[in-house]
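Why do we care about 3D structure at all? Because function follows from shape, and shape follows, mostly, from sequence. That is the central idea of this module. The next example makes it concrete: a single protein chain, its amino acid sequence, and then its structure expressed as tokens.
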Amino acid sequence: MPTLEQLVAAHAAAQGDDLAYVGGEQRMTWREYDARAEGIAAALVDAGVAPGDRVAVCLPDGPAVHACFVGIERAGAVVVGIGPRAGRREVAHLLGLTGASLLLWASDPEDPPGGVATIAVSETDLPVGRGAPAKRGEDLDALWLLNSTSGTTGLPKCVMHHQRRWFAFHDLAVDAGELSSRDVFLSALPAPFGFGLWTGHVTPTVLGVPCVVLPRFDAEACLAAIERERVTVLAAVSTQFVMVLNAPTLDRYDLTSLRVLFTGGEMVPERRAAEFEDRTGCRVLQFYGSNETGALSRTTVRDTRERRLRTAGAVIPSMHVRLLADDGTDVTATGGPGVAACRGPLCCLGGGKNISAAQVEDEVSTHPAVAVAAAVAMPDPVFGERVCAYVELRPHAAPLDLAALQDHLVSRGVGKELWPEYLVVLDVLPRASGGKVAKGALRDDVRRRVPTAER
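And the structure:
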């Protein structure tokens, strides 16, 4: 399967004059989409962005944000998607959390949050560079995008995405809504978030169809766009489609092109969903899940109206959903109650967070048996990286294993994000010429130990 940036290039070559995006007054063809993404990629290279670097995007919803996503991908970097309504404190937090080195945004470039380098972007003024991007390649399993989700401390946490999960989601959506290359999308969701990603960035690109995006949601603008662009597939959270229903001008618009409304993000109100179907003639569908899990269940156009509007549909078999009681007991067979757990192709790569090596080392060094500690990243096929601690023990200390070390950290009240997930005990840690621990030698060593390190 080609990557998203490769699909954009292919559509530019095959149907370059066809419409890719509509946003407000802006209309962008596939040829323009490809050219703008290429210009952004070149500008990133000019700015010193290297493959694997994190580049943040905080822009209003419109064609430009999608060109930026593809340009970053084309430069070999990782997208950090930040919602356009994020406050400066949240933006600064996410820049630090993800380690972003550059921010593309529409606000004052002279005063960026977080103190990172900034490139100003608008719908009519996208950056263009001369550098030759190092292509990302065709690895659908590589880290592609980081976005935020609700945290428990008042600040968001991050979720790691690869493209393969969204292509799998796309396949389920095509089947659920019987989507085709004849459809026209309107995605009323912010581009960086899961619902907005597949309805505004992924599925329209895979199908090669137009997508209408709204710089700011407004029920009247949504209705006008559906009529004007002959939208067939609408994607909106429940609050948004209810606002459309409540619009006093609803009956003035021709909405007969609509076939499907994908909704969710909160409980779907049955009565209002039924009213939406009755007044537009479309079918209301939903996926149930989260940013981290993807979908656990779905409804389809083939389901009865009662199933579509009164349930979250059938569990998706490939997601291996289970219900777990508070003590971890599997209560799936009895129907719960329990917390849903899953494993499958729609799951994210993991929660993305920069772990401070210095903090890990400080905490590990509090164990009475540890003389010197060093933390390095160990490659992991699922999560990309895990924390590996190398330790040198004090003379005559008892042997130390990972379980004992973690028990010690539990007793100190240390959060799990600072727990080592692997432990290597050496007689003497390698030193550089200045006497410091030679982290480079440990990184080389940890790659050789991937299959055998204690966990």
